[in-house]
Specification:
Layout: E1 2-5, H1 11-23, E2 27-32, E3 37-42, H2 50-54, E4 59-63, E5 83-85, E6 88-90, E7 96-100, H3 107-120, E8 124-126, H4 144-157, E9 161-164, E10 179-182, H5 190-197, E11 203-206, H6 213-225, E12 231-235, H7 253-260, E13 265-267, H8 269-273, H9 276-288, E14 293-297, H10 315-336
Parallel strand pairs: 7-8, 7-14, 8-9, 9-10, 10-11, 11-12, 12-13
Antiparallel strand pairs: 1-3, 1-4, 2-3, 5-6
């Protein structure tokens, strides 16, 4: 249940209502909005008389909700959340571009790619140190050593870093990582979600291969229920009957997530298509659809990449794409004036 308060609601009256509800066993989550303040109730509200609460002079309206996700729900949090990743902002009109190699391979590869990405306009450096691979014989990443190389690139370029954590045991290595990535295969690893929820660190939550919107938001709810509300959603393509592309990028997820949730949503066109030539059109479609950011794989020499080379852009290709992304965003802003 959501209780929307009037703008002139007296603090003493609101405190009295909160105390009465808490005595009945409800958990209250107050939210201060730009125009309204809200009290979000968690618990079995079936016994509450919504009309009686709505009759209070300082209450604007009472809304019952059915969705099982409360903290991620826009009804509880009308204003867009803005997530700060080491100084790079995502959401609420702030656009972020995460770029870098699929996996960390060598110091030269990471640093050269990081410098090129920053020069082109990227705001966050992405790179994998622990890699979930379909085949056990594929390159699994450099582990802690890979994170150290990302940290060196961060010191050299100033870019905050995001990298994937696959297991609770790996969290000890992520102290200097600015944002934790939960991959598609771990979207419903609830034990891992709870643990990252206990940290004061932004989390990038990728959508599972076959996850529904509600399942995706419930995964975010697991993180947020533990106290960490710094969650960014990432659509990376879902598994459909189509075999021409690696996955199917669900652009519909952008307006739908903005409608259902206050959390930012970014798009990963690299994993969606699995082909570098598809990254540009999918990126521009995502920007046009209202995404809060992009996650793009960039490698200084994709032909020699140890992981996902066919979907990675060269630095010059990324630079060209960024010019178009910036131009498109500016054009969209002009159209809304």
């Amino acid at each position: 249940m959501i209780i929307t308060l009037k703008q002139n609601a007296a603090e003493t009256e609101v405190s009295r209502l909160r105390s009465e509800l808490e005595e009945k066993g409800f958990i209250i989550h107050p939210v201060e909005g730009a125009r309204y303040n809200i009290l979000g109730l968690i618990g079995d509200t079936a016994s509450l008389d919504a009309r009686q609460i709505e009759s209070l002079d300082f209450v604007d309206k009472v809304t019952r909700i059915q969705e099982p996700y409360k903290k991620a729900n826009r009804k509880f949090h009308p204003d867009d959340s803005v997530i700060n990743v080491g100084g790079a902002l995502i959401g609420g009109g702030h656009f972020a571009v995460m770029a870098g190699p699929c996996s960390v391979e060598t110091p030269e590869q990471v640093l050269e790619t990081a410098k090129a990405c920053k020069e082109a306009g990227a705001t966050i450096l992405r790179g994998g140190a622990f890699k979930p691979r379909t085949s056990p014989y594929s390159f699994q990443g450099m582990g802690p050593e890979g994170l150290e190389l990302l940290e060196l690139a961060k010191k050299e370029t100033g870019l905050p870093i995001v990298s994937e954590v696959m297991d609770i045991s790996q969290l000890q290595y992520f102290d200097n990582v600015d944002m934790l990535q939960i991959g598609a295969r771990n979207m419903q690893n609830f034990t891992l979600l709870k643990e990252v929820g206990k940290l004061n660190k932004p989390v990038l939550l990728k959508r599972g291969l076959s996850a529904t919107y509600e399942e995706w938001l419930m995964a975010a709810e697991y993180i947020m229920s533990e106290g960490n509300e710094q969650v960014v959603l990432c659509e990376r393509g879902i598994r459909t009957f189509e075999t021409k592309t690696r996955n199917t990028l669900d652009v519909t997820a952008i307006p739908m997530m903005h409608e259902l949730s206050h959390l930012p949503i970014i798009m990963d066109p690299s994993h969606a298509a699995g082909m570098s030539r598809m990254v540009r059109p999918l990126s521009l479609a995502s920007v046009g659809g209202g995404a809060d950011g992009l996650m793009i794989e960039v490698h200084n020499d994709p032909s020699k990449a140890l992981c996902d080379g066919p979907q990675a852009l060269r630095p010059d290709q990324f630079t060209s794409l960024m010019k178009e992304v910036i131009a498109l965003r500016q054009a969209l802003v002009e159209c809304t004036k």
